[in-house]
Amino acid sequence: MDNRVINILTNKSKYSNEIQEKLVDCLEANGFTPSLEFNKDAELIITIGGDGSFLHAVRNNGFPNIPFIGINTGSLGFYPELSPNDIANFIKNYKLKNYTIYDINVVEGIILNKEKSMHLYAINEIAIKGASSKTIHLDIFVDNNHLQTISGDGVIISTPLGSSAYNYSSGGSLVYPSLKTLQITPIVPLISNAYRCLNSSVIVPPEFEVVITPEQKYTNSVVFYADGEEYEFSNVDKAKFFMSKKTIKKLTIGNYNYWKVIKEKFL
Questions:
Q1: Are 124 and 63 in contact (CB under 8 A)?
Q2: What's the pLDDT at 129?
Q3: Is 103 in the active site?
Q4: Cα(first)–Cα(last) distance of the chain, in Å?
């Protein structure tokens, strides 16, 4: 079992650091080599923290093809399924290969202006807003069909797993994780005689591309938030969103019960 490297990525809080020490000791006692920084040759990545720590570990390391599992030392903890008390039992099951690895779908966005294009990826969502929290006007196209013009704080393009995050708090629907869909959710849309749009989310199949065109007569600066990470662009011609071919791998022990997680976290 020599040189079986396992990455440990933590949010650096005092409690998380204490759990990290416990995890390092337990891994070493079972013949593994813990790495406290990202090692591309690791067989597993364990995050310590909450959902933010899990998402940052994935994003900051380029959406690697190494399975992830998280230990929850935060509050909500939708992605990290282990509690600190589960460490010894988890390592026992991991050695016995009593686990399942499944793919998490990722939303991809291509932002285009006259000078360049940029790709964004997100596990939960990509949100589009006006700079300085200004009202933004966005034309929404689905499968080359103009659907609506949203005027308001912006719009969210979320994945099924991300449907329970910012999307849900903005009035979007919960979507079962195995469904390969994108969800379009307006953020505080203006509904009046002057501005009309659907006051609900729209769920589209994975083969449909969602295109968003900012109306530049109102603003020349658009802010995109990929899992909360901010990117500002000027003179955006359009932004295209679709289910990416890129995925991440999540390791789980036992059977993942989505409805149980939803009930425990939200009800």
A1: no
A2: 95
A3: no
A4: 43
pLDDT tens track for 27-62 = 999 999 999 999 999 999 999 999 999 999 999 999
Here the CATH number for the domain that contains residue 31 is 3.40.50.10330
209 and 154, same structural domain?
yes
Burial 227-264 (b: 16+ CB within 10 A, else e): beeeeebeebeebebbbbeeebbbbebeeeeeeebeee
Query: Is there a domain that residue 250 lies in?
Result: no
Can you tell me the mean pLDDT for 138-147?
A: 96
Rounded to the nearest 5 percent, the helix, strand and coil shares of the chain are 20, 40, 35
Q: Tens digits of per-residue pLDDT, 170-190?
A: 999 999 988 999 999 999 998
Catalytic residue among 51, 139, 227, 237: 51
For residue 58 the two structure tokens come to: 């994935």
CB 52 within 8 A of CB 11: yes
| DSSP reduced 3-state for 3 | coil
Taking the C-alpha atoms of residue 191 and residue 212, their distance in angstroms, rounded to an integer, is 19
pLDDT of 27 reads 97
